[in-house]
Design goal:
This protein is α+β, with helices and mostly antiparallel strands and 621 residues long. The protein is 48% helix and 20% strand. The strands form 6 sheets. The chain has a 7-stranded mixed β-sheet. Helix 1 packs antiparallel against helix 6, helix 10 crosses helix 15 and helix 11 runs parallel beside helix 12.
Length: 621
């Protein structure tokens, strides 16, 4: 089926490929959006789980301290104090993080005149009277003015287990009960503790060692941390206790990805893992749930707890932000990157498809030109062969007897034989060029000598066409380093082309002059005519093999379409160039530029030599 002289099959194929690419682009965008949403869900669940596990881990660190300093209720007697001194010594010897405990204090809650604070001396292992540290101001006020507000009516066992976290100090506090006080508490009487043990925590150790260890455990991977984790005080806005990464230079544009109490009042509720989560993620979720669900079991196992807050609510908070600003922003960046990569791949596919279509069209055009060449060369070969055979038959049959007629027949056979020989030479030359079997033997040749030799070879064609050829050669031109037979063929093709297309003016001109470029001196040879010219649409294609322009078909000028292609290939093989300018109805100018050389210089270059080899690197004879 034809459409405007062309088959619609390539057009249909292009349309089908374009439609497929559009569908692929739509599906890719849809899939990337779904993947991005699943990735955001996964990151949010993973982040929430990491925060819950960090919170539980830190809570267990405090439980270990409380368990290590758990002493039977003896009030504030000497034996009770000695037990705490022994527990402190055991902690410093056996604990994996002994520096977490900074100091150990005991406060006696006797009558107001006898209330005193004692500090354990690690050297003497004795409690010595001490002044209140600066960081204990709020705790001291609470002890003096509200000594029993820590406690309400509790079960008989609960006072022994309950500990309090004082985040301002920081410290964990435990009441000291006498046996009578516990008995009175069991009967529901409102009693007052005999004193308090205060285990001061080392904030510097937590900031320098414990917090980085926990962050590395739950927020770092083999690619490093992608989150900026901070521990801040809710009661003192702007106070940052710890920060895993340097603060951002700009104010965050998004709310935190996760905001939770470092020690929540109750275990955190974990999010459900997304449906797209893998086996490892679901195992991590299950493990985290087991750890969170076992918080009460941990308290029961350690025999202490729960740890509650002096202020009534938690103060330390975990603030987590993604380095990109938020998880949503990070997923959006990933989505845009994936979209860019996908569209880039689709663009490459589209370009590849276009190149395939263009290559197919060029192959079709080349096949058509080859068929035209085969038809044209058959006609061109048939004509001189027919003339030669006819003349030979006339001579053999005795039709021609006069000497003048024999000479005419001989000239005719000679002319047609020359024409046939030229076509064969061009065909063989093109085959040699395409087969990379051509080798060049360059040496210095005078320009005037080359032009004269080319004119002599083209003289039969010039005389037959009745064309006048003018030459202008600049005196004293440097020689050119060329393969003489090859360049003669190049010049002869240009001269014959000018003669063919000289039109009614019957004139052609050849000029040669020296010129200079930035690299080296050159010789410029121009061959011009004042004939029919070349259409602008054909000018860019005239050096392609088998190509014949519209003007050749209109004026019925015979040829193979190989002459200019061979001329350009030879010019470039000699290290030069060949270009053309033409105006319709005013003629054409071909410009051949060749590198100049010194006399006596020679150079042999094979066909497989690397392109761009400078001929001035030639060896001197």
């Amino acid at each position: 089926m034809k459409l405007a002289g062309r088959s619609i099959a390539p057009i249909a194929a292009v349309c089908a490929l374009a439609a497929i690419l559009v569908v692929l682009a739509f599906l890719q965008v849809h899939w990337i959006d779904r993947v991005a949403r699943a990735e955001q869900d996964r990151m949010e669940v993973t982040l929430h789980t990491a925060v819950a596990r960090l919170s539980l881990d830190f809570y267990n660190q405090l439980l270990h301290i409380c368990s290590a300093f758990k002493v039977s209720p003896r009030g504030v007697t000497g034996k009770a104090l000695q037990s705490y001194a022994e527990r402190y010594d055991d902690w410093m010897y056996a604990s994996t993080r002994p520096r977490l405990v900074s100091s150990l204090y005991v406060w006696k809650a006797a009558n107001p005149a006898g209330r005193r604070l004692f500090r354990l001396n690690p050297v003497t292992e004795k409690f010595e009277a001490a002044s209140w540290p600066a960081g204990f101001v709020a705790l001291r006020a609470h002890f003096h003015h509200h000594p029993s507000t820590f406690f309400r009516r509790l079960s008989p066992d609960e006072p022994r287990r309950r500990w309090y976290l004082v985040e301002d100090v920081p410290a964990v506090v435990h009441p000291l009960w006498s046996g009578n006080a516990l008995g009175g508490l069991a009967r529901g009487a409102k009693v007052q503790p005999a004193g308090y043990v205060v285990i001061q925590l080392d904030m510097r150790f937590m900031q320098d060692t414990l917090f980085p260890l926990l962050m590395g455990r739950y927020f770092h991977s083999h690619r490093g941390s992608v989150y900026r984790v901070s521990i801040v005080s809710e009661q003192h806005p702007g106070e940052v206790l710890y920060q895993s990464l340097p603060p951002a230079s700009e104010k965050p544009a998004y709310p935190p990805d996760e905001l939770a109490d470092l020690i929540p009042s109750r275990p955190m509720t974990l999010l459900q893992p997304p449906l797209s989560a893998g086996v490892e993620e679901r195992q991590a979720e299950t493990e985290a749930r087991n750890l969170t669900a076992s918080r009460e079991e941990q308290e029961a196992e350690n025999g202490v707890g729960p740890i509650i807050f002096l202020a009534g609510k938690p103060d330390w908070q975990i603030v987590v932000r993604h380095r990109s600003g938020s998880v949503h922003a990070a997923v959006l960046d990933l989505q845009w990157r994936d979209l860019g990569v996908s569209l880039g791949v689709l663009a490459i596919l589209a370009v590849s498809t276009g190149l395939i279509v263009v290559s197919a069209q060029r192959a079709q055009r080349l096949a058509k030109m080859q068929l035209d060449f085969a038809a044209g060369i058959s006609h061109e070969l048939r004509t001189p062969l027919a003339v030669i055979c006819s003349a030979a038959e006339n001579l053999a049959d005795g039709v021609v007897e006069l000497g003048s007629q024999v000479r005419n027949y001989g000239a005719l056979i000679k002319s047609e034989g020359r024409r046939l020989s030229e076509m064969v030479e061009q065909t063989l030359g093109f085959a040699a060029q395409q087969g990379d079997r051509q080798s060049w033997n360059r040496h210095s040749v005078e320009v005037a000598k080359l032009i004269d030799a080319a004119l002599r070879q083209a003289e039969p064609v010039i005389k037959e066409a009745g064309v006048t050829v003018d030459t202008q050669i600049e005196p004293g031109l440097q020689p050119v380093l060329v393969d003489e037979p090859a360049l003669l063929r190049c010049l002869q093709n240009l001269i014959v082309n000018a003669v063919k297309y000289s039109g009614e003016n019957r004139w052609a001109g050849i000029t040669a002059r020296s010129t200079h470029t930035r690299r080296k001196p050159e010789i410029e040879i121009t061959v011009r005519d004042r004939g029919i010219g070349i259409d602008a649409s054909d000018l860019t294609h005239i050096f392609k093999p088998f190509y014949r322009g519209k003007s050749m078909e209109v004026h019925r000028i015979h040829g193979t379409g190989l002459g200019l292609s061979l001329a350009k290939d030879i010019a470039e093989a000699m290290g030069g160039s060949l270009s053309a300018k033409s105006t319709r109805g005013r003629g054409t100018v071909f410009t051949l530029r060749l590198p100049a050389s010194a006399p006596g210089e020679s150079f042999k270059l094979a066909a497989d030599a690397p392109p761009g080899l400078d001929i001035f690197e030639a060896a001197k004879k």
